[in-house]
Amino acid sequence: MILKSWNWNFERCLPSNFCDNVIRYAKEQEFMGGQIGGKKNIGLNTDDLAPKRKSEIVWLKEPWVHKHLTPFVFHANRNAGWNFEYHRHEPVQFTKYVDNGHYGWHSDMDDEPYNDINAAFSLGRIRKISMTIPLVDGSEYEGGDFVIKNSFGDEIVIKEARKKGSVIVFPSFLLHKVTPVTAGTRYSLVMWTLGWPFN
């Protein structure tokens, strides 16, 4: 699929107090180790797969978080010219990267639609649109760059991903990574938007 825009960014559009409140709230929850599910290894060879991920996460289902994020999906999808059909959002993932925390090259889109009959909201759907939000400025940590690989294989460092309160939206099938955080702590949010598989 050839895209006019590989990503669509909204620079520092979320209030600082929203970012701070999310961090404060997430820290009160129980963290778990970041996992890798499904077969999200599209376009990778086995040398790219290990070590894949080192991070801690918290799942956020709170409406006050979602309501701040969902409008950006609509605007990015339209403004970037993707015009993907979609209609569901997964719970938001709060992620903490510290002490060499990282996430190697991966795609958010699985190679098969969700098939859990007990999860009607996702059944038969795939991740189509991904979003990441930096909750702290890049001056508070070292490393931790967010990088996208376009379909030509070019690696694009997204500078807005180091600016607190920015929103970065991109198609879920694009490979991307977070480079190791070598000092400080990087906090971010991730949200995935679901739709029927592409024809």
Summarize the structure.
The protein has one domain (8-29, 38-45, 52-195): Jelly Rolls. The chain has helices spanning 16-27, 63-79; strands at 8-10, 32-33, 53-54, 56-60, 88-89, 92-98, 102-106, 126-134, 141-143, 146-149, 155-157, 167-171, 175-178, 181-195.
Folded structure, characterized:
With 199 residues, the protein is an alpha+beta fold. The chain has one domain (8-29, 38-45, 52-195): q2cbj1_9rhob like domain (Jelly Rolls), CATH 2.60.120. The protein is built from 2 helices and 14 strands. It has helices spanning 16-27, 63-79; strands at 8-10, 32-33, 53-54, 56-60, 88-89, 92-98, 102-106, 126-134, 141-143, 146-149, 155-157, 167-171, 175-178, 181-195. The strands form 2 sheets. Strands 1, 2, 4, 5, 6, 8, 9, 12 and 14 form a 9-stranded antiparallel β-sheet that branches. Strand 10 and strand 11 form a beta hairpin. The N and C termini lie close together (12 Å).
Helix content: 10-25%
Q: What is the C-alpha radius of gyration, as a whole number of Å? A: 16 Å
Q: Catalogue the unreliable spans.
A: 38-47
β-strand number: 14
Order of helices and strands: EHEEEHEEEEEEEEEE
In whole angstroms, the N-to-C terminal distance is 12 Å
Beta content comes to: 25-35%
Structural class: alpha+beta
Per CATH, the class reads Mainly Beta
- Largest sheet, if any? 9 strands, antiparallel
Overall shape: globular
- Count of domain modules: 1
Determine the number of helices (DSSP H or I, runs of at least 4 residues): 2
CATH topology: Jelly Rolls
Q: Mind telling me the CATH superfamily name?
A: q2cbj1_9rhob like domain
Mean pLDDT: 91
| CATH architectural grouping | Sandwich
